[in-house]
Amino acid sequence: MDAFLQQALNGLTLGSIYGLVALGLTLVYGILHVPNFAHGALYMVGAYISYFIMVEHGLNYWVAMLGAGLVVALLSVLCERLVFHPLRHAPPIHDKIAAIGILLFLEALVQMHWGADFRRMPTPYTEIFHFGSLTLPAQRLLIIVGAFSLMGALHLYLKKTMTGSTIIAMAQNREGAFLVGIDANRVAMMTFAIAGFLAAVGATLFAPINLVYPAMGHLVIMKAFVIIILGGMGSIPGAIVGGLIIGFAEALGGYYLSGTYKDLIAFVLLVAILSIKPTGLFTKGVR
Amino acid sequence: MDRVMNFLASPAMKVVLLVAAILFPWVAASEYQIYVMALAFVWAIAVYGLNIITGYCGQLNLAHGGFFAIGAYAVGLLTVDYGWAFWPAFIAAGVLGAFFGFLVGVVSLRLKEHYFAIFTLCVGFIIYLLIEKWEELTHGTLGVISIAPPEGFGLVDFTETIPFYYLVLFFLVLAIWLISRISRSLVGRTFLAIRISDDLAQSLGINLMRNKVLAFVLSTTYAGLAGALLAGVVRFIGPDLAEITHTFDVITYLLVGGIGTLMGPLVGTLLITWITQAVQSFEEYRMIVFGPLLVVLVIFMPKGIVGTFLTWRGRRLASKAPARRAESRVGDSSDGNQGEAG
After folding, report:
1. Smallest Cβ distance to A100: which of B113, B251, B302?
2. A70 touches chain B (CB under 8 A)
């Protein structure tokens, strides 16, 4: 039972990071209907920027996180302006290829500039809490609390502010949003900025218990895709629930089934789900 | 100018290309260049495979590198661990490519657009993870070494570069010939109809699923056979072969040459291979240029080199000879389908 609870706790940590990354992806998909393959590269760039702000400039963890969030948000908006905006009327295959182009570019750039070495990100929070027989490193606690407070903040932003509502409106109905005078460009830029910010913060939270390297975004982004397919593309609660499902499945599956193949679990789950229900689990109606 | 253009698009051009390819080993500066050319031909066969499902049929398959690796590993493991000769293993690679293509296709092709691309991205990753982790079968990260070369039955020695070059050239020509037959047939037209619109094709009475699976199986068979040839020439393979970057390489070749055109895959593969060769040190960081290149291409020149050329020529012909328009359409029908395909 203790082992189960411990793994469930690990699953919660993983799931909250996956959820954070998937949220950005699903927001962008909701607005532009682009599966942004470059999102994983933004996540990776976020981790690198935090790392170098902390290690080279000796600044505080939180400053690094904020700095990375802002830089990546800017980068994300730049991608929207330079790439996805010009392609908004192109056939669907084109924006996917362009997204892949951005992904390749960012990865190669980081590798050239900072090298392909694996790096360990320092964290100021190294204590380990004990609850009975459960152990919880402070960084994991920080991940869970940080991720869920960000999700909460995003929820408030989307529901309670005007700009947040315009994002929701446009995701629900593009034409309707135009009719009431919503500026599509502004909404798209805002969405990309939020997505980039979430990715960078997620990476900064997760990197201390993982490693920083140029291909670190690959697995995370693919799992995020699995999550948003699970939760329905464009659905915000779906991304959070899906993230938790994948997180738990991986932690428990890795423990009870096989540690070597734990990264496969998410993909096998996806294959199984799409084989049975080609439109995803929580989608309503037919796309 | 017009004569040059007409020549470039004429059947005679294909003969010229073939003769040039046959003469290449005599004009090449070194054996290394012949080797690079042979490798480029192998990749071109894989690109032709991707062109069937993505170019003609319009479904972005992101697992192509995975199927390429399946072919390579089929040859590698069957010859090294099970003592098969190269040619039976080569055929097995094609069969395995088709078999896994069928399995994946039946599940994935029920999905539309983004779902299909994401699904195949995950399939490619599953293939990569399995090859890397399943050490009992695949030797894991160590890779497979000393793979048997194709046996020449006492006539030729395919461990030499030049005979292998001709072997690959033979398969490349066969591959292109088969694609040109397919693209002009009813099946090829059906693929095009599906790319233009799923719903429209379906309302014309086209069985979407059957045709998409057919296109997918064809494309994975091409990938499997190309992978098998690669294993035969390089004779060392590792799990990195299944990495997503190879799929992206193939997409770049296809897009630069011209997606959905007959000669595009060849043009794109050769051009990029030789540019990469010209700047050797650049190999590792090639994506710094290729990434933005992909973006710029899809924004400004989505039809690639061959597609843009064919469209441009088509426009010129149409504007120059309005009176002969009807006649030239009939006369050019064989080239016309490439134009439409672009």
Report:
1. B251
2. no
- Domains of chain B, earliest start first: 2-341 (1.10.3470)
Cβ contacts of B100 on chain A, cutoff 8 Å: none
Chains A, B: CB contacts under 8 A, how many?
122
Is the CB of residue B285 less than 8 Å away from at least one CB of chain A? yes
Question: C-alpha A139: how far from its chain's center?
Answer: 18
Annotated domain spans of chain A: 16-217
**C-beta neighbour count of A13 within 10 angstroms:** 23
- How close B199 gets to chain A, by Cα (Å)? 13
- Assembly ipTM: 0.83
From the candidates A104, A109, A216, A227, which should be mutated to test the interface with B, based on the most B CB atoms within 10 A? A104
**B208 contact A CB<8A:** no
Of A261, A267, A279, the CB nearest to B125: A267
CB contact under 8 A, A264 and B126: yes
pLDDT, tens digit only, all 287 positions of chain A:
777 888 888 889 889 999 999 988 888 888 888 888 889 899 999 999 998 888 888 888 888 889 999 999 999 999 989 888 888 888 778 888 888 889 888 988 888 888 888 888 877 777 788 877 777 888 888 888 888 898 889 888 888 888 888 888 888 888 888 888 888 888 889 999 999 999 999 998 888 888 888 888 888 888 888 888 888 777 888 888 888 988 888 888 888 877 777 778 888 888 787 777 776 666 554 43
Contact flag B299-A87 (C-beta cutoff 8 Å):
yes
SS3 B145: strand
